[in-house]
Amino acid sequence: MNTWKNLPGKLWVSFMALNPRLHRRALSAGRVLSPAERDLFLSMDRYDLAHSLAVASRLREDPLLYRAALLHDSGKLVTELKLRVRWAYTFLEVFRPRWLQRLTNWVEGEALGRGVLERMRSLPPGWKRGLFVQLHHGEIAAELLRRAGSDEVLVGLVEGHQKEPADERAASLRRVDDLF
Q1: pLDDT for residue 105
Q2: How far is Cα of residue 32 from the mean position of the Cα atoms in its chain?
């Protein structure tokens, strides 16, 4: 969730995304992932890599939470979620949450299909699909991880990282994610 409280964390992550060694750090951190999980992790854009590394660095004492932290935003598909949609979403979330809710309800009503990926693909490329991806990135990542054969506990943590936490592990992931 975007608020004024996590602005310092977001600024720090933005600065870290500029680090020329970011990809090297991501490769090193990704060694704990399966090859398919690592490919998904490394496909994220620089900001999401930096964000995931920041979250993971705070959760490294629990190997499962560390892996979940690395992968939690991997559903923010770089091909679908453009920077202008991210900025608009953040602006609306902070300054006009009611407008954002109306807009998301409209896009949700236009998305057709059963699974999250089918619903995403039913929307035209552009801001509607990008907004859908922003809203459902946890579910998208979970579906991609299921297809990759990932452990269901890991998949559940990633899928629910923005929902009401189901247990202490999920609460830890959400709490740290909300810092950045």
Answers
A1: 98
A2: 19
- The predicted-structure confidence for 30-57, as pLDDT tens digits, reads as follows 999 999 999 999 999 999 999 999 999 9
Q: Tokens 């979940």 — which residue?
A: 68
Q: How far is CA 95 from CA 14, 83, 162, in A?
A: 21, 18, 20
Distances (CA, A) of 19 to 15, 41, 56, 163: 7, 17, 17, 31
Distance, in Å, from the CA atom of 88 to the CA atom of 62, rounded to the nearest integer, reads: 35
User: pLDDT at residue 3 above 80?
Assistant: no
pLDDT at 1 over 80: no
For 163, the 3-state DSSP assignment is coil
Over residues 98-111, the pLDDT tens digits come to 999 999 999 999 99
- Quote the CA–CA distance of 72 and 41 in Å, as a whole number: 9
CA atoms of 49 and 43, how far apart (whole Å) = 9
DSSP-derived secondary structure for 85-110: HHHHHHHHHHH-HHHHHHHHHHHHHH
Q: By CB neighbour count within 10 A (0-12 exposed, 13-18 middle, 19+ buried), where does 164 fall? A: exposed
* pLDDT, average across residues 104-125: 97
